[in-house]
Amino acid sequence: MKKLVLFFLLLSIFKAYSQQKLNWAEVVYGNIKGLKENKIKTLKLKQGNKVLRSIEVLSDKSILVKDSLNTQYFDFDDENRLISVKSVKDMWQQQFNLNFKNNYVNQLSKTIDNNGIVTFSKFSKVSFNNTLYEEREVYNFDRKKNDSLNVFRIKYFFNQQNPDLSYRETYNNGKIWNKKYFNQTEVTKEKFDGHFIVDSILQKDYKVTKYHFENYPEHQNIKIENDSVLTIHKKLGKKVSEKLEYASIPFREIFYDENETIKEKIIYKNYQNAFNEWVIWEEIKYDERGKVINRKFPNKSIYKLKNGILVYRQNVHRVKGCGNSYTIKNKMLSMYYLQLYSSSILFNLKLNKNFVDNFDTSSVEEDEEELIYNYLDFTDSSKVTADYSASKDVKDEILRTSKGVRRKDRYVKRYFEGLEVEAETMTGKKYKFNPSQNSDLLSFPIHTFLTKEDY
Fold first, then answer.
1. Predicted confidence (pLDDT) at residue 73 exceeds the cutoff of 70
2. How many angstroms separate the CA atoms of 198 and 149, rounded?
3. Cβ atoms of 421 and 28 closer than 8 Å
């Protein structure tokens, strides 16, 4: 009987001990799943009595990370993937949000709240007929005044019955609207103080027709352009004049009275010179009855007409030369900022600085999106996963830079010598871990955000 009691007593002690044993590889990695399974309440990275970084498990889907620079909140989904990280410092906070579709990020957003002025950027991927399209939304908002300072968005609208009538809409701060249909028709409306302009492009049978419409309170200008250009001027809705041009040379002008009746017409006869340039040779002006009232030859002193071609007169010498013109533009300089977030207790400020200092932002092309996200998982040979709109050069650069924080003894000694991790479980038990002596257990999940700002 005594042996049986002793057996159950030893068994209970063994079970209690085994239940309290921590899987340090999961704990220091910082994945929410590992923290929950090891029943972690808090983690502290300490140097003596000084706490360098701490992690507090707030719930099954949320942790709080603190260091000397920021307070950060990490939120995870049901599959233990990061879906939100928020940094808070004084009156400033920044938040990144991720949406997943299957195993890929299909939406990424950034929100900065600087003392009530909110800057928001969002990129989304939507699918239609097995093709991915990217939507974008950017705005500035003043919380105190409850007023939008600037709004820009690109959104797609899909027509299931007739895909050609699907379109991409661009909206810019209430001033510019653009719709580009899948059949290549495009309409742009630009609003000004007191008037607006509408531009349209219509493609049919490989022919392109452009329409330009300016609407003022008392007059309108209309331009229709294909092989030739027809310009119409109206006043209070009634036609005032129209002009037909080809290759920027007028061919016909008509002027109307208040009843839209022709009161004057000018016909331009044009011929080509030896350089195949169209030149006005004769202007014929007609009255309202079609009678010629004036005829002139504006270029007769320069050319003479011979067999339907304008040739220079002998006393005219034309010199075709090269001229220099300089245009100075204030080009906006794009700068990229690398922002790193990790739920690992071991991803300290020294590691962060080493990563940022060695990352070459020149690898990011000018036409890259303004937000790029990559997830580095060092448990899987430092592979880049869950990328969002990042080029191969950016991915290669992230991998190149990550070599500086891989788990090698010389790096471990550099960053973790003299440091220890203190873990406290939900039951109040405390455990300690020396990272410099357990390099085989060290790894980091690093969420990398590249953000572009113009100057």
1. yes
2. 24
3. yes
pLDDT score at 454 = 62
Q: What would the mean pLDDT of 89-100 be, rounded to a whole number?
A: 92
The single-letter code of the amino acid at 81 is R
**pLDDT, mean of residues 391-414:** 75
Measure CA of the first residue to CA of the last residue in the chain; give whole Å.
Answer: 83
Encoded amino acid at 353, one letter: K
Going by pLDDT thresholds of 50, 70 and 90, the confidence category of residue 164 is very high
Q: In 10 A of CB 82, how many CB atoms?
A: 22
> Tell me: the pLDDT tens digits for 142-155?
888 888 888 999 99
Cα 317 versus chain centre, distance: 55
The predicted-structure confidence for 27-62, as pLDDT tens digits, reads as follows 999 889 999 999 999 999 999 999 999 999 999 999
To which H or E segment does residue 9 belong? helix 2-20
* 350's tokens: 């020294």
The closest alpha carbon to 449, from 369, 343, 353, 338, belongs to 338
Output Rg (C-alpha) for the chain, integer angstroms.
35
Each as own residue / partner, the long-range contacts of residues 102-111 (CB below 8 Å, 24 or more positions apart, any chain) are: 103/385, 103/386, 104/386, 105/373, 105/386, 105/387, 105/388, 108/371, 108/373, 108/388, 109/371, 110/371, 110/449, 110/451
411 has a pLDDT exceeding 70:
no
Per-residue pLDDT at 191 = 94
Asked if residues 163 and 182 have their Cβ atoms less than 8 Å apart, the reply is: yes
Token digits of residue 14: 């063994």
Rounded to whole angstroms, the Cα distance separating 322 from 160 reads 55
Three-state secondary-structure class, residue 378: helix
Pair of tokens at residue 271: 């011929």
Whether 26 contacts 36, CB under 8 Å? no
Share of the chain above pLDDT 90, in %: 55
Using an 8 Å Cβ cutoff, are 297 and 282 in contact? yes
Q: Which residue in this structure is represented by tokens 């208040």?
A: 258
